From TrEMBL:
It comes from Planococcus koreensis. This is GNAT superfamily N-acetyltransferase. Gene3D superfamilies: 3.40.630.30. The keyword Chloroplast does not apply. One of its GO terms (molecular function) is acyltransferase activity, transferring groups other than amino-acyl groups. CDD domains: NAT_SF (cd04301). Residues 139-274 form the N-acetyltransferase domain. Keywords: Transferase.
Amino acid sequence: MMEWGQNKETTKKIEDIKRKGTQAYFKEYQKQSPSFTGEYLVLKGKGDVFCSGDSCHGFGFGTDEVLVSSDIDEMENFVRKKRTDFSLFLEITPYADEKLIKRLQVLGYTLDHFLNVWLIDLQQWQPKEVQQDRGAIVEKVDDENVHDWAWAVALGISDDDYQAAVAVESVRSFWQVEGNTAFLVRENGKCTGGGCMAIDGELAELFMTATLPAKRGKGYQAMLIEERLQYAKEAGCSYATVTTKPGTSSARNVRRSGFQLAYDKAVLRSPRLE
């Protein structure tokens, strides 16, 4: 059994579940929506680049083989073919080669923001009683309530009815990925938020957690965290991970739930790729 903690092997496991999950989502969404034009580039042993809509992100870098100049050229050309005048965002782990960082700086990449990656030991974790509204319950998502879940998550992320309507099928595809499980919060029967979870071996990843704007601050995100941790533990997972932006309510919630900071990632942004 591998040794989990603040080390390169743990980082690779976490980055791998993100890469594989995003690949599976792209494939699922393409099946459900033939008009979806998202594509991804796999740099075997180095990382992946995903382009969808107005976003081009790469992650998994700095955990295995070192990126060289030809790899950067390949990624940038991939983005140029997909999107004109777009930037590429690369998520860099703490184990990335220092020469890579310097090479990207020479090419004009700048720091855009940081991400916190958290880890919790489910073997030591015990459920906590979460303060909540009396009428609030958490449901596991199935065929009957998946549309309610997808709508609540899409609206919670976008804060806009039109954008939510556009995104609802995209969100739904995350639930349809094999191995993913989703949960919905209702308050007195009405949808208030939801979250998703992926499992890969003994590791679970919590992601896509959102609450409707009018229902924030009522403990629903904490409920969703606890529900997924319990589900992951019962499914045989030893650890769970989640990624947040620093200093956010999400970061505070996962820390309160017992997560420990595993590592930070620097997100570097390229110049516009014309």
